[in-house]
Amino acid sequence: MENPNRRNVLVTGGALGALGALTMAAPANASALWTWSPKGSVAGDGTGADPKGVWDPEADELVASLLDAGVVPDVNKELRKWTKNGQTLPSGLPSELRQFIERARQMPSWADEGKLATAFEFNEKRGLYLGVTYGFASGMMSTVIPREARAVYYSKGGADMRDRITKTAKLGYDIGTENAYADNGEMIVTCVKTRLAHAGVRHLLPKSPHWTKVADEEKPISQADMMVTWHSLPTTVMQNLVKWKVPIPANESAAFLHSWQVCAHMLGIKDEYIPNSWDEANAQAKQVLDPILAPTPEGIKLADMLLNLATIVPGGPLKYVTRPILGALTRYVLGDQIANWLKIPRYPLWDTVFQVGWEPFIRVREGLLELDRAPGVVKQFYWMFDELLRLAALLVLSGANFPISIEIPTGNNPN
Ligand code: HEM
């Protein structure tokens, strides 16, 4: 019988939360019909072109030329000096790249400072729930998004998942900071560097014999793929918070969406594909995300790595305690079908603890239910639930603690 132990639960909960902020993915022959109208987008109109055939030509051509010229290691060194949104760009960057970044770091005309300020309030109030949903909903979901799973697995980052997770967590941290998109913030830097990293992946991954053998597209990370992954983040997070009946005022919910709409724009997603409301986001997700979720050998291996946190959490034989807890949480959040795809076993004790205890635990935390009236399992495991929340949030916050620079990859995963 698994024996819950406070330290083990803490450590694994935190690491998983961090993963959540990072994860993204795609399925086997995942490709849903695109009929979503640009009328529901932040642009309000557009050509309605199927985003499966749209990438990011401006960034892609530029980064391909830098890779072909062999200057990316120097460029990455210079990019490390660019940390704040409004900072003067390092003088050693090639001039075409400087010009591109100057354009790419401009905020969209529809960005609303008031909403972004409210989004920060929401992140502060709900940071604990956001950590665990980014981790267990978004993060683990990315492993059943076949295209994302394959791209992540066969790209350079796939060879060092710990580094990748740290870098991805930075985006989850930055978007929740007070000055995220302001001159002294870092979210624009993170988005524009990620845009460059994705352009690098588009150039490099088609040269990987491993990726080309299994991929169902010639070039990865189309605008459609980007929106799929985007929905695995804010749309899925909000759906879970609603399901758990976390009380969220309408203006905070809209503000959280807005911060992610701006993120999508800064990542190079066209405005005509970015939903303008939760209703539109849910409708688009139903069309592009839900039908493509599927297991792949790569995704199963990635999920295993993510769950096997004992191997990336320094210092302990935590495996026997942590996997059951994290596996049960994944099953609870993503459901039986996805858990089975990922070959996550059933853990009768922990499965029941989450099923019976999680929602009442949230109600107790929110002051909507007295602990005395909650099911016994809530009293027994309150500390565990609470620490899972805290550590997941802490892990996302750890993005603040040391300098992390997202880089343009120079190769693929050799394995
Ligand atoms: C890199 C976020 C969509 C595949 C990154 C990084 C971030 C990020 C923060 C930098 C981390 C690192 O360098 O390790 C996002 C967000 C997305 C998105 C927020 C959508 C809203 C996608 C999609 C795919 C993808 C759709 C594939 C289908 C990758 C790969 C890397 C990467 C392969 C590079 C890893 C390497 O350096 O080898 N992404 N991403 N991403 N992303 Fe994404």
TrEMBL record:
InterPro entries: Lcp-like, MPAB/Lcp_cat_dom, TAT_signal. GO terms for molecular function: oxidoreductase activity. Residues 1-30 form the signal peptide. Keywords: Signal. Pfam families: MPAB_Lcp_cat (PF09995). Residues 133-352 form the ER-bound oxygenase mpaB/mpaB'/Rubber oxygenase catalytic domain. The keyword Ligase does not apply. PANTHER family: ER-BOUND OXYGENASE MPAB_MPAB'_RUBBER OXYGENASE CATALYTIC DOMAIN-CONTAINING PROTEIN (PTHR37539:SF1), SECRETED PROTEIN-RELATED (PTHR37539). This is Uncharacterized protein DUF2236. It comes from Actinomadura hallensis.
